[in-house]
Design brief:
heterodimer; A: mainly alpha; about 0% strand; extended; B: alpha/beta; Rossmann fold; 2 domains; elongated
């Protein structure tokens, strides 16, 4: 029962959603929007709630036991509690001016900084690791140089046909490879979905 | 340079590399080279789609982005909002990324103020909702109901002049998708375009998202792409509004050049050391034998 019921439910819900996608039926569409899609939303919300509790449990335990880098856990828990308090109890919740000012003056800047720092790590890693050890590595290195220079005006200033060569690599070689990968992934996705739908794939279910 | 010096060079302290990179990126901000920017076809197509829209169209700006994309998306948003407004269309901002809506409003603020755009009349932000499939599916039959008749600030959507005649997804003239990851272009195509609701879609892609979006552009799913800071600079050029992307291109160019030079020097050092070690080994072997 513990395995049969989830498989049956998966099959019914999956087939209903598929019929709704490929056939036009207003009442079925309304049913899917009202119940199925909202069930998915509610499940996601539960998952977020569960994830939050788990995150807090792990970090509070780390603080209590003074494990390595426990100070970062303090920062996470304190920030979480502050934003939870501001978001839930302030008038207007996340649209409250104080909340917005607090959030906008902290999070976007931290996030942008993290992303900007990548530039330095990439430069250091490329200098140390990007070596022409084989034909494949050499081809990759040359392609990277062309793409990097082709996307900035300085590339055309150094060698005028650079943007055209870069476009050719991007549009012909890169895009066709990506298209093949994308089609392959989609076919794999369909096969996996069918396995889940008809109950062949049962790894995610509880043991009998 | 001796082999030992090359050995020292390729094992130099990473903080020196950071410093070189920092100078390479920051210095061009203070001395503009003003190198010419060429407008590429995907960007020209992007521009033409907005130019050729029927008057008073609804343009949905789907700002699926996070703060890390500020350098690319902010200049794009400023040009885009100005462009759409100047062509007489109405703007509806939405996002399925938690921070997307607030960021779109914040980053577009200068365009709204410069053009005297009025919230609720020229543009609106419908805010963040969870449940992408439910919202997009619901919007196919009733957009306002899908958003519970409330905007980002909790105001009533249905009474706003910007929403006049906008009932369902098929009333949308164009969707401009800012894509920094997932959810992004794929979700809009599968929920609205493949079902025949909105056929006109263009994308503002972060640089890392350009390759997958090029596949969709070549397949005709996207009619145009404004990609990365380079795309933003091209947009600024077409619009005649030089801004942060145009000045950022010099910085990005020198940054790229610095990385390339470092890699070339690293490889020269690698080959010199390898050859020297091979020679040493050969002479040692000869001595032994």
């Amino acid at each position: 029962m513990r395995r049969t019921l989830p498989v049956a439910l998966t099959f019914i819900v999956g087939v209903t959603a598929m019929i709704n996608t490929y056939f036009v039926n207003p009442s079925l569409a309304a049913f899917c929007t009202r119940y199925l899609a909202r069930t998915s939303t509610v499940s996601s919300a539960w998952a977020v709630g569960l994830g939050t509790l788990n995150l807090m449990r792990i970090h509070i335990r780390r603080i209590n036991r003074r494990q390595d880098n426990w100070q970062y856990s303090v920062s996470l828990v304190v920030t979480y509690v502050i934003f939870l308090f501001l978001g839930v109890f302030l008038v207007g919740h996340q649209n409250n001016h104080f909340f917005q000012a607090f959030f906008n003056s902290i999070q976007p800047h931290l996030s942008s900084t993290m992303f900007s720092v990548l530039c330095f790590y990439i430069a250091s890693a490329a200098f140390r690791a990007f070596r022409m050890r084989s034909m494949e590595a050499t081809m990759m290195l040359l392609s990277a140089f062309i793409i990097m220079l082709g996307n900035v005006p300085i590339g055309a200033a150094i060698f005028p046909p650079m943007p055209q060569i870069s476009d050719w690599i991007m549009n012909q070689i890169n895009t066709s490879s990506l298209r093949a990968m994308s089609i392959g992934l989609s076919m794999g996705g369909i096969a996996q979905t069918m396995r889940n739908l008809v109950g062949i794939e049962r790894g995610h279910l509880a043991a009998e | 340079m001796s082999v030992d010096r090359w050995r020292k060079f390729i094992h130099m302290d990473k903080r020196i590399i950071y410093l070189i990179m920092c100078i390479g990126v920051v210095a061009p901000m203070f001395m503009t080279f003003g190198l010419p920017i060429t407008v590429e076809r995907p960007m020209q197509d992007f521009f033409n789609v907005i130019e050729n829209l029927p008057p008073d169209s609804i343009v949905v700006v789907a700002h699926e982005a996070s703060p890390s994309q500020i350098s690319e998306f902010k200049p794009m948003l400023i040009c885009l909002m100005t462009h759409i407004y100047q062509k007489g269309h109405r703007i509806v901002i939405q996002s399925f990324w938690a921070q997307g809506n607030a960021l779109a409003l914040e980053w577009s603020k200068s365009a709204f103020e410069a053009n005297g755009m009025i919230y609720g009349t020229d543009y609106v932000c419908v805010g963040y909702r969870t449940g992408l499939t439910a919202i997009m599916d619901g919007a196919r039959t009733n957009y306002i109901n899908a958003y519970s008749d409330r905007d980002h600030y909790g105001n009533t959507l249905s009474t706003m002049p910007v929403m006049r005649g906008f009932e369902k997804a098929s009333d949308i003239g164009l969707v401009v998708i800012f894509t920094g990851g997932s959810p992004g272009v794929g979700e809009y195509i599968s929920n609205w375009q493949s079902r025949g609701d909105v056929m006109n879609m263009i994308a503002c892609a972060a640089a890392v998202q350009i390759p997958p979006e090029m596949v969709r552009y070549q397949a005709g799913m996207l009619q145009g792409i404004c990609g990365g800071m380079s795309g933003a600079a091209q947009y600024e050029k077409i619009m005649g509004m030089p801004g942060s992307a145009t000045s950022g291109m010099d910085s990005q160019g020198i940054g790229h050049l610095t990385i390339i030079l470092l890699v070339i020097l690293g490889n020269i050092g690698y080959f010199i050391i390898r050859n020297a070690e091979a020679k040493e080994r050969a002479s040692r072997d000869a001595a032994v034998s």
